[in-house]
Amino acid sequence: MSTQVSSNAPIELAETLRARLALFPETANSERETAARLKHFLTEFKPTRFVDHVGGYGVIAEWNSGKKGPTVMVRACMDAAAEGHTYGHDAEMAAVAGLAPLIQENMPKTGALVLVFQPASTTGTGAHAVFSDDKFRPFKPDWIIGFEPIPGEELGTVVFREGAMTTASKGLTIKLHGKESDISSALGAVHPLKGVIRLSEQILDLSADEKFEQFVQTNVAHIRLGEKVFHTSPGYAELSATVRARKKRELDKMAKRIVDYAQIAGQIHELGVDVTWHDEFIAIRNGEGTAKVVEQWRKASGHPVRLLDEPLHWSDDFQHYLKGLNGVFIGIGAGQDAQPRGSEGFDLPEAWTGQTHQILWSMVQDSFKRLYSS
Questions:
Q1: Where are the beta strands (DSSP E) in the chain?
Q2: Of 25, 176, 230, 304, whose CB is crowded by the most CB atoms within 10 A?
């Protein structure tokens, strides 16, 4: 591929697209308008193939040379949180979509370059849905690149780790069924308050349990108790939490412990108990040899890279691609003063879109060179 980029026009287009996407955030599995906006933008740059409704509302754009050769793919996430794009996926999509005008002007000599925009990343279901969709199979790449913004890291610095890159996690909801009663007569009432308090404390205490070999983390995300009906003693409570660990066996151990806690709480407080699991993420693992690939790219590009001592303490569903494909997952610094992802008011610096766009373009070119010579 040609390395000549004559102007900042692609970055300006990307920043304009980001502003548009930020105004219309859509949560997991409802990214209909986001997909339509991406389609409108990408098809302006004449991909040789465009497919939508992949794994839900996912879209794929391919620029194919028509000659046999390697295929390189870049993934961006589409979905927002309920509060808006507090995970930076508006900027992710813009940085990746902004590659389209560069690709149109610098088509691969052989092989193909593919951009995939994935829905439902925040629930842990999107990558698997896209990868297992029959529409994805014709685009199967030789190398796939995934990334996420990393607040607290120097703006534009690439962070990387061979082996475990992120932690595994999953969510759970515990429903406690007591017996509702009018407060004027507590006969027969079974109040779930003590049960839900006991459970929330036990779940939070797991983070400090020394029986776990490596990093584990728990969080109680939501508690619901009865309704705003002031003459009623509630008969129902619900608790939602997240458990996180570096190792699957530790995650499974925590899950079993919580189920045991719930059953014991039910017995002590005479409550019915239902436990459901959801939003499961497997840890991302960068395969053997990826450190060498990233180091060669760093030397060629001169771009700063920081090697992580331990995995990132959050989750992403990109491992569903890496289970069947060769590739790499990196973090890209969002600035040392940036708010944590998912927090209220989170907004990536405007410069992040442009820097990420340049990093990805450089990595794409490096990937083609390496695959051409292999």
A1: 49-54, 58-64, 71-77, 112-118, 143-150, 158-160, 163-164, 168-177, 181-182, 216-225, 232-233, 236-245, 272-281, 285-286, 305-307, 327-333
A2: 176
Domain-embedded: residue 63: yes
Is pLDDT of 209 > 90? no
Q: Per-residue pLDDT for 345 more than 80?
A: no
Same domain membership, residue 307 and residue 158: yes
Question: With contact defined as beta carbons under 8 Å apart, do 305 and 48 qualify?
Answer: no
**pTM of this prediction exceeds 0.85:** yes
> Residue 2 has what pLDDT?
47
Q: For residue 54, what are the domain limits?
A: 9-165+283-373
Instruction: Let me know: does 326 contact 318? Beta carbons within 8 Å.
Output: no
Are 327 and 236 in a shared domain?
Answer: no
Tokens read off for 248? 């699957």
Which residue is it, tokens 């992710």? 92
Residue 50 phi, psi (nearest 5) = -135, 130
Would residue 2 count as lying in a domain? no
